[in-house]
Amino acid sequence: MKKRLFSIAFMFVITLVCTGILMGLSRMSAERIELARQARMQRLVLSVLDMPPAAGATDRDVSRRYDESVRKTEKDGRTIYLGLSPDRKSIAGYAFEVSGPGFWGPIHGMMGVSPDLGRVLGVAFYDHQETPGLGGRIDEPWFRRQFAGKLLAPGADGVFFHFVAPGMHERPTDVDAITGATETTRRLSRFLNTDITDTLQWLKTNKEALAAAPL
Amino acid sequence: MANQSQDSMAILGKALWEENPVFRQILGICSALAVTNLMVNTAIMGLSLIFVTAMSGATVSALRKITPARIRMMVQVLIISFYVIVVDIVLKAHLPDISRALGPYVGLIITNCIIMGRCEGYARSNPVWPSLVDGAANGLGYALVLLGVAFIREVLGFGSVFGFTVMPAGFTRWTIMVMAPAAFFVLGTFLWVANTFAPAKEKK
Predict the structure, then answer these.
(1) CA distances from B171 to B148, B151, B167, B178 (A)
(2) To which H or E segment does residue A75 belong?
(3) Which residue in the set B37, B67, B74 is minimally distant from A132, CB to CB?
C-alpha cells in the first residue's frame, strides 16, 4: 500500500515539475512565436502586392513597411489587404486569401491583383502538405513568379490558369505545371478558379466602398 | 578520469558502429524515411534527437534510485516528452522555417524507439555521466546514418548539398529520390553494406 502511494506521489510530483517548466517556457516563447508568425504573413502580403521587402530585411523592417503600406479590412466575412501607393492616397492593389484542397491536405495561399482587377500582381502558397520536391515546389519562386503580370481574363472554358508542360505555352492563360505533381497543379487550378472568380466579383461591387474608407 | 574518458570512448564506438541504433538495431526508421530528403532538415532533426536522448538518459539515470520500478516506463515517457516539447518550442520560436519543414516529426521524436531503448536498456542502471554520453552517442549514431541517407537523396533528388547546388546545370533530378520510397532503397543499401562489414565476432 505504502509503495503504491509513493508511486502515485512520485508520478504526481514529476509531472508537476515537468509541466510547470514547460508552461513557463511556452509563456516566454509565445510572444516570439506570434511575432514570427505575423512577420511571415506580412512578408507574404507585401510580396504578393508586388512590394517585396528588401533582401535581408529583418522582421522589424518588414513590419514597418507593412504598417506603412498595407491596410487590412474585413467585410462580409472576407479579409482583404489593401496595398497603398507610395503617396498613400490611392490603392495600388488588393490581396486576398486563396485556398483549397491539395493532394495531401489543404493548400493556403495569397494572391495580389492590380487596382483595376485586370492583372495578377503576385501569388504565394504558404501552407501546404504537398510532397517536398514535387507538389511542394508550388512554394518555390520560379513557380510563383510565372503568375505575376498574368491577365485576369479566363480562357474560353472559363479557366483562369491552365497548367501545361513546361515550354508548351500557347494561350495567355498557360503556366508551367510541375513535373511529377499533376494532381497538385490540377487541384490548384480548380480552387484558384473558384476563389478568384468569387473574390473578383465581390471586389467589383465593393471597390468604391473600400476606396472611400479612410486609408 | 582517464578511466572515465576511456569508458566514454567505448560507449561512443559502440553507438556509432558496433551497436549503431539504425544499422544494427534497426530502430528509429520511421523518421529516417520522413526527414531525409534535405540535409538541413536532417541535421536539425539529428541535433534534436541527440539532445533529447542525452538529456532523457541523464534524467532517467539521476532518478533511477528513487523511481519505483513498476512505474518506470511512465516516468521515462514523461521525461522524454518533456524534452521533446522543449525542443519543439525552441524550434518554433527560433527556427520557424525549419520547424514548419519538420512538421509533426519533432513531436514524433517522443515515440522514437532509440530514446526509450537507451533509457530502459542503459540509463536505468548506470550513473548519470555515462548515461548522458550513451544518449548523445546513440543520437549521434542515428544522426550520422540519417545524414548519409539525406546526402544521397539530396544530391540525386535536388542536385544540391545543404541547399548548395553541386550538380551541373543539365543534371536531371531523380524524382524518386525525393519521395519516401527512396529512403527505403538508400537505407536498405546502407544496411547491406554495413552488414557485409559487420564485426567479425558476430559472424562466428
Answers:
(1) 21, 16, 6, 15
(2) strand A70-75
(3) B37
Interchain pair B38, A180: CB under 8 A? no
Report the predicted TM-score, pTM, of the whole model to 2 decimal places: 0.76
**8 A C-beta contact, residue A53 and residue A39:** no
Cell of B139: 543520437
Q: Chain B contacts of A132, Cβ < 8 Å?
A: 37-38, 101, 178
Q: Taking every pair of C-alpha atoms in chain B, what is the biggest distance, in angstroms?
A: 63
Q: Which three cell numbers stand for residue A171?
A: 494561350
**Which residues of chain B have a CB within 8 Å of the CB of A25?**
86, 89
- The alpha carbon of B62 is separated from its chain's Cα centroid by a whole number of angstroms, namely 22
**Chain A residues in contact with B103 (beta carbon < 8 A):** 129
Beta-bridge partner residues of B94 = none
- Residue B78's Cα: distance from chain center in Å? 19
Q: Across the interface, do A133 and B90 touch by the CB < 8 Å criterion? A: no
pLDDT at residue number B202: 52
Amino acid residing at A149: G
B89 touches chain A (CB under 8 A): yes
- Amino acid identity of A101? P
Best A2, A5, A11 residue to mutate vs chain B (most B CBs within 10 Å)? A11
Residue type, B61: S
Give CA separation, B149 vs A130, A133, B26, B37, B182, in Å. 21, 16, 14, 8, 9
Segment A49-97, tens digit of pLDDT:
888 877 777 888 888 888 888 888 888 888 889 888 888 778 889 999 9
Q: B128-162 b/e with 16+ CB inside 10 Å = b?
A: bebbbbbbbbbbbbbbbbbbbbbbbbbbbbbbbee
ipTM over 0.90: no
In this model, does residue B54 exceed pLDDT 60?
yes
Amino acid at B47: L
Residue of B55, B82, B88 for testing the chain A interface, max A β-carbons within 10 Å: B82
- If residue A127 lies in a helix (H) or strand (E), which one and from where to where? strand A120-127
Residue A21 with chain B: CB contacts under 8 Å: 82, 86
